[in-house]
């Protein structure tokens, strides 16, 4: 078979054209069938069986296995089996057939992902139940330390999460290699209903930290998920004053991520001090916002009572930080608000830190150069 003929077979498989596919393979005799059964295509190394399973064409899957003689456990360059493909795309009929034909339910692809993990990314409960009924182990972990439950909590389908807890009640007692729990992950992605289930049915301790000292509440707030944050505060007694490993608290973290609503929530609803310091060099939220170039956050911080003239332990103002980050808009705003350039403890002005042309031009527009 030449390349054009093989490409035609791929297209027919992807389009679900069984009769045409069968005709093309049969016309080439036993040699054609042998070629097809062992042929891997493209960079991915997929076979026709991979394509058929991925697109959910059960009749072609059955034909390739029964008539062409393809191995149900054939794998591509990422070690994905046809079962991975069918599970990841939510094709229950193909999943069921492949399992009946002897596919290994917990086969591992690259990065140690099982078909059940792949199914959990698609939130397809029927496929997940099928895999579990055939003995899939939801406690297996991939190279990052995530099990299927962890993945399900990221995707946020309450029915999938509840079913996994029903089948394996202690599946929640897991953490990734960076010590992140499913609660961290659900909070980070704003999966409110899943967070509620985890708080009701699992035994997570309040303010459990990952390897960076981040709590689920921090994950929720710095990603702007206020309703999840309220849930963690009210139902889990999470601490609004916890700090991560570098000493940054919630108000500093939202200044970095640019979450204006979360910032107002912290200061107005939780009465958090907008000028509180972080790290050994005593940075404030205004320093962080300026370094990230978040002009709207700078404006909101000042509206909420931030000290425009505050300095860190090195004598640097927010203007220094804006120039360190090379953010012309932030530097311009701070100058317009009345923050004058001045030397830090080492004798360096913010202007001296400006490297990009647009940041340099900010200081050439008539604003005072030094105090």
UniProtKB/TrEMBL annotation:
<feature type="repeat" description="ANK">
    <location>
        <begin position="78"/>
        <end position="110"/>
    </location>
</feature>
<protein>
    <recommendedName>
        <fullName>Ankyrin repeat domain-containing protein 16</fullName>
    </recommendedName>
</protein>
<comment type="subunit">
    <text>Interacts with AARS; the interaction is direct.</text>
</comment>
<feature type="repeat" description="ANK">
    <location>
        <begin position="281"/>
        <end position="313"/>
    </location>
</feature>
<dbReference type="Pfam" id="PF12796">
    <property type="entry name" value="Ank_2"/>
</dbReference>
<keyword id="KW-0677">Repeat</keyword>
<dbReference type="GO" id="GO:0005634">
    <property type="term" value="C:nucleus"/>
</dbReference>
<dbReference type="Pfam" id="PF13637">
    <property type="entry name" value="Ank_4"/>
</dbReference>
<keyword id="KW-0963">Cytoplasm</keyword>
<feature type="repeat" description="ANK">
    <location>
        <begin position="314"/>
        <end position="338"/>
    </location>
</feature>
<dbReference type="InterPro" id="IPR036770">
    <property type="entry name" value="Ankyrin_rpt-contain_sf"/>
</dbReference>
<keyword id="KW-0539">Nucleus</keyword>
<keyword id="KW-0040">ANK repeat</keyword>
<dbReference type="GO" id="GO:0005737">
    <property type="term" value="C:cytoplasm"/>
</dbReference>
<feature type="repeat" description="ANK">
    <location>
        <begin position="44"/>
        <end position="66"/>
    </location>
</feature>
<feature type="repeat" description="ANK">
    <location>
        <begin position="212"/>
        <end position="235"/>
    </location>
</feature>
<feature type="repeat" description="ANK">
    <location>
        <begin position="178"/>
        <end position="201"/>
    </location>
</feature>
<dbReference type="Pfam" id="PF00023">
    <property type="entry name" value="Ank"/>
</dbReference>
<feature type="repeat" description="ANK">
    <location>
        <begin position="111"/>
        <end position="143"/>
    </location>
</feature>
<dbReference type="InterPro" id="IPR002110">
    <property type="entry name" value="Ankyrin_rpt"/>
</dbReference>
<comment type="function">
    <text>Required to prevent the misactivation of serine (Ser) with tRNA(Ala) by promoting the hydrolysis of Ser-mischarged tRNA(Ala), thereby playing a role in translational fidelity. Binds directly to the catalytic domain of AARS/AlaRS and captures Ser that is misactivated by AARS/AlaRS, preventing the charging of Ser adenylates to tRNA(Ala) and precluding Ser misincorporation in nascent peptides.</text>
</comment>
């Amino acid at each position: 078979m030449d390349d054009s003929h093989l490409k035609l077979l791929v297209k027919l498989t992807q389009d679900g054209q069984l009769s045409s596919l069968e005709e093309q393979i049969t016309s080439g005799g036993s040699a054609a069938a042998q070629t097809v059964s062992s042929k891997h295509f493209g960079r991915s190394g997929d076979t026709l069986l991979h394509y058929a399973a991925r697109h959910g064409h059960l009749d072609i899957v059955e034909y390739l296995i029964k008539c062409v003689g393809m191995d149900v456990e054939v794998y591509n360059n990422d070690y994905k089996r046809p079962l991975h493909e069918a599970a990841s795309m939510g094709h229950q009929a193909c999943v069921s057939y492949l399992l009946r034909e002897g596919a290994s339910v917990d086969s591992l692809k690259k990065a140690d992902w099982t078909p059940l993990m792949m199914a959990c990314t698609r939130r397809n409960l029927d496929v997940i139940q099928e895999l579990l009924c055939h003995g899939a182990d939801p406690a297996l972990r991939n190279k990052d330390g995530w099990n299927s439950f962890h993945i399900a909590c990221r995707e946020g389908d309450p029915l999938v999460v509840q079913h996994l807890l029903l089948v394996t009640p202690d599946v929640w007692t897991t953490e990734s290699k960076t010590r992140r729990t499913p609660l961290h992950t659900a909070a980070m992605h704003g999966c409110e209903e899943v967070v509620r289930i985890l708080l009701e049915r699992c035994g997570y301790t309040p303010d459990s930290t990952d390897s960076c000292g981040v709590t689920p509440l921090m994950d929720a707030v710095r990603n702007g998920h206020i309703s999840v944050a309220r849930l963690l505060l009210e139902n889990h007694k999470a601490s609004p004053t916890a700090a991560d490993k570098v000493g940054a608290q919630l108000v500093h973290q939202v200044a970095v991520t640019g979450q204006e609503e979360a910032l107002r929530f912290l200061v107005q609803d939780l009465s958090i001090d907008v000028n509180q310091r972080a790290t050994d060099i005593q940075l404030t939220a205004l320093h962080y916002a300026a370094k990230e170039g978040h002009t709207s956050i700078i404006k909101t911080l000042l509206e909420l009572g931030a000290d425009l003239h505050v300095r860190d332990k090195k004598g640097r103002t927010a203007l220094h930080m804006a120039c360190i980050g090379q953010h012309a808009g932030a530097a311009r705003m701070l100058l317009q608000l009345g923050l004058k350039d001045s030397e830090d403890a080492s004798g360096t002005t913010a202007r001296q830190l400006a490297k990009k042309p647009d940041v340099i031009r900010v200081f050439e527009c008539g604003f005072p150069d030094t105090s």
